[in-house]
Amino acid sequence: xxxxxxxxxAATPLILLLTLAGLFALSSTASAAPPRVLGIGSxxxxxxxxxxxxxxxxxxxxxxxSSTFTEATAHAVTAFQKWEGIGRDGRVGPQTYAAxxxxxxxxxxxxxxxxxKRIEVLLDKQVALLIRDGRVRRVIxxxxxxxxxxxxxxxxxxxxxxxxxxxxxxSVWLPYASYFNRGIAFHGYASVxxxxxxxxxxxxxxxxxxxxxxxxxxxxxxxxxxxxxxVGALEAPADVVYGP
Length: 244
What we know:
4-stranded mixed β-sheet; alpha+beta; 2 domains; 31% helix; L,D-transpeptidase catalytic domain-like; Muramoyl-pentapeptide Carboxypeptidase, domain 1; 5-stranded mixed β-sheet
């Protein structure tokens, strides 16, 4: 009996060592697990960290911090995905996590040579860049003119603003409209898909329409450009219904 007790005492340190090693292995495996996919309705510290990162990069207003993944968060994620050239679904999965780790704030694609505010609309990426003093302050996911209603490229200026603007051709109210090329305006719209879907205007998500309206004062230069993204990446679903 004494011999058995002695053997147990001698084995105890080894058992403890093996137990701790097992726990360490489990904890290492758990820490190596991929982060969860985030989308509308998600909440927690990881969402708060996401909004911090998006705000730092210009995809959400400066200082934005929220532990709830809202529709505004989804539009911000979509803008990020558009700029980075990755899958556009408004959710944060492995590809978007990887891009967020190395991303930097977008740069203007053109140079005005002077200080002040201006806006670039990039038809290929379907984003608008709000630029002040040569620095991109905000990146907004937009939807421009659908095939046959293409938003014209060129240089323009905001010349008319209406908080509630009536579209006579399409019999619809356009909230927070800033016109820059005849009847073409930035305006809020309920549906801002990842592809060009409007009748020529630049649709802005409701979450950011007031911000764009405030930024786009009368006289603000607007540059609409098309670059090298393939047309196939911007094609709409076959059953899409186009609107203003």
